[in-house]
Structures are given as structure tokens and as C-alpha cells.
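pinging the channel bc i need a second pair of eyes. not urgent but kinda urgent?? the chain im working w is below, pasted from the shared doc
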Amino acid sequence: MDLALRALADGTRRRILTLVWRKERTAGEIASEFAMTRPAVSQHLTVLRESELVLVRRAGVRRFYRANRKAVARIRAELGAFWDDRLIRLRDAAEAVERKGRRK
């Protein structure tokens, strides 16, 4: 999960993930959406692939990228559990403060 969170920390990679969320795109199609060199986009795609957030399919010399929805769902579930726990603690703390205020 650490690799995925590091990958998602970059805005360009989040945007790439958004681009490949609904449909497969070639590296060239993805690169055309950015004002950076194709090698720079390729480096971002490598990070996303190594973090398992995108999957790649080869067709001849072309590579097609798509979001790995299962990996994103796992991250979302882990973060959801983290936040749920913190929100429960916050609620409990707020209720304790409220109870103390009523006793005065």
C-alpha cells in the first residue's frame, strides 16, 4: 500500500489514473493530455504500474493502460477503515466533553 500512496501523492499520476479509469489508453494518448515530454509521462506510468494502480496490455508495439480497479478498491477500503476508527474516536471524545459539560 505504501507504493500506491506514494504514487497517488503526485497530481500528475492522479490525473493519469483518472484518464485510464473509464477506458484503456495508449501511452501516446495519455501523453497528449500533458504539457511534458513523453519520457516524463512514461516515468509516471512506470510508477503507477509498479504500484499496481494501472495494468498494461501489449498489442503489437503498442501498450494500453487501464486502471486497476481492484487495487484502488483495496486502498479505499484500508483508508476507509482508518478514517472510520478515527471518526469513532472523535465522536467518543466529543460525547465525553458534552457529558462533562452537563454535569457542571
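so The CA atoms of residues 27 and 63 lie 7 Å apart. and The radius of gyration is 20 Å. — does that match what u expected or am i reading it wrong
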